[in-house]
Predict the structure.
Amino acid sequence: MKITVLGAGNVGGTLGQAWAKRGHEVFFGVRDPGSDNVRALLAGEGALQAGSLADALAFADVIVIAVPWRVALGQLERTAGLEGKVLVDATNAITWDGGPVAALQESVSELIARAAPGSHVVKAFNSIGAEHMAGPKIAGISPDMFFCGDDEKAKAIVARLASDLGFEPVDVGPLRNARHLESLALLWIHLATARGYGRNIAFKLLRE
Ligand SMILES: NC(=O)c1ccc[n+]([C@@H]2O[C@H](COP(=O)([O-])OP(=O)(O)OC[C@H]3O[C@@H](n4cnc5c(N)ncnc54)[C@H](OP(=O)(O)O)[C@@H]3O)[C@@H](O)[C@H]2O)c1
């Protein structure tokens, strides 16, 4: 599958390299395609390219958003031709200011859907630490990847991409439930930091 990944940081870099290793064709949308970080990523295994955010948005019909949410919103608002594309929103609206982590009342995913009318937004890859997004077993168990969205075909694509990495996909319903997944991320951050569990943690839904 052709996949655009906006951002080549902790999340974008990890996801992009992991999908390329598994045979997908990945294009990173970045500010500086010649940076040391991007060059190191492109030296990884598989089909990897990088270019501007605008070129990246045109490259694929599946676009994973792994830049700060305000950056994503601005770029999407300036971009035409996103109708029908699958926008996979991995962002969390958080600020680190030494105090509590602050979240929006409305989910970022809903803001993104409004910024890109006609696209199919799926919230995913936001509720686990970046270092566990590629080959993610923890204590021998595959974590779940919770996702939600309004378009069934788009969700099936995201479920496959999550499975390719070793996650068990869990469909959480329509896009309005993105606020639950963003809260789940805040819980993850709280457990990892304030509660001292560290970053080697992930959520699992147990069922019979
Ligand atoms: N880190 C995690 O464990 C984790 C887990 C789940 C979700 N998330 C969410 O995923 C998103 C990305 O997090 P991250 O940890 O990957 O961040 P990161 O390592 O700081 O990477 C952010 C990426 O966005 C790019 N970027 C920043 N400002 C930009 C701008 N003004 N224009 C264009 N590109 C810009 C950066 O490019 P440069 O390299 O040029 O600065 C970099 O490629 C955030 O919304 C975060 O909340 C993070």
About this structure: Helices lie at 10-21, 36-42, 53-59, 69-77, 108-115, 152-164, 178-192.
